Amino acid sequence: MLKSLNTAATGMKAQQTNMDVISNNIANSSTTGFKKARAEFEDLIYNTEKEPGARTGENSVAPNGVQVGLGVKTAAVQKDFDQGSSKVTKNPFDMEIQGSGFLPVQLPSGQIAYTRDGSFKKAPDGRLVDKNGHALQPEIVIPPDAAGVEIAPDGQVSIISGTNTNPQVVGQVQLVNFVNPAGLKNIGKNMFVPSPASGLPQQGVPGDNGLGQIAQGQLETSNVNIVDEMVNMITAQRAYETNSKVIQASDQMLQQMNNLR
């Protein structure tokens, strides 16, 4: 059988994965704090018919060998953590991370997850929670008589209550960073959990040790560029189409061999 059949099939499969990644980027172009991804590929093993540098005579060697590649595979799907654009919401509990870092939230299982989505709400008990009810960690409780809330760039949360015009500190927003954020595991709902590739979480005050600062009343939008994704989609589509043409051409060659008399 012609090797080109399987080789082109691996190319089609790789472009299917590429298209899956692109479609997920486009689908989440309006998702708060979403980080786009890109598929990365690597070639498969080679069928070596003649080793490079093989001896061809008593005092001579082949300058290059005969190696035929056997296709491609998806090596990784790389997350791009470039900063998204800012969107002003004027919601006092919305927080944008301007720079590196993640906001920690507690899952129902007790596990801590990390997110770039800073759209928080005040729960009935006064705690700051995300849209799925996961509490910000460490917990920050806003008293019911709070007339105003201020979140400073360093994450300090202050309120004004009743007739007292002096701000009262009620909590401190902490940010967490990782040695390799691209190694975090996506679990959906705009959240990540650590993996052996990401390293251990490193928690600190916003603005310290390379962590970003907090901007109150703003959110970070997705960093997906629709024009770039459309170009990537066309490229993937054409590569898929070309690989299918290779399969058709290989099939025609096999047909010609079968028709030999």
Question: Main traits of this protein?
Answer:
three-stranded antiparallel beta sheet; alpha+beta; 261 residues
Tell me what you see in this structure.
The protein is of the alpha+beta class and 261 residues long. It contains 2 helices and 22 strands. It has 2 domains: 3-81 and 224-258, no CATH class; 86-220, no CATH class. It is elongated and about 100 Å long.
Domain tally? 2
Q: Which percent range describes the beta-strand content?
A: 25-35%
Number of strands: 22
Number of helices: 2
Helix content: 10-25%
Strand order of the largest sheet: 13-9-10-19-18
The quaternary organization reads as single chain
Overall mean pLDDT score? 93
Low-pLDDT runs: none
What is the CA-CA span between the terminal residues?
A: 19 Å
Radius of gyration from the CA trace? 27 Å
Alpha-beta classification: alpha+beta
Topology record:
Elements lengths: L2 H25 L9 E7 L2 E5 L4 E3 L2 E2 L4 E4 L2 E8 L6 E3 L6 E4 L4 E4 L5 E4 L5 E2 L5 E2 L5 E2 L9 E6 L4 E6 L2 E9 L2 E3 L7 E4 L2 E3 L8 E3 L8 E4 L1 E3 L5 H33 L3
Antiparallel strand pairs: 1-6, 2-5, 3-4, 7-22, 8-21, 9-10, 9-13, 10-19, 11-12, 14-15, 15-16, 17-20, 18-19
In short:
By secondary structure, the protein is α+β, with helices and mostly antiparallel strands.
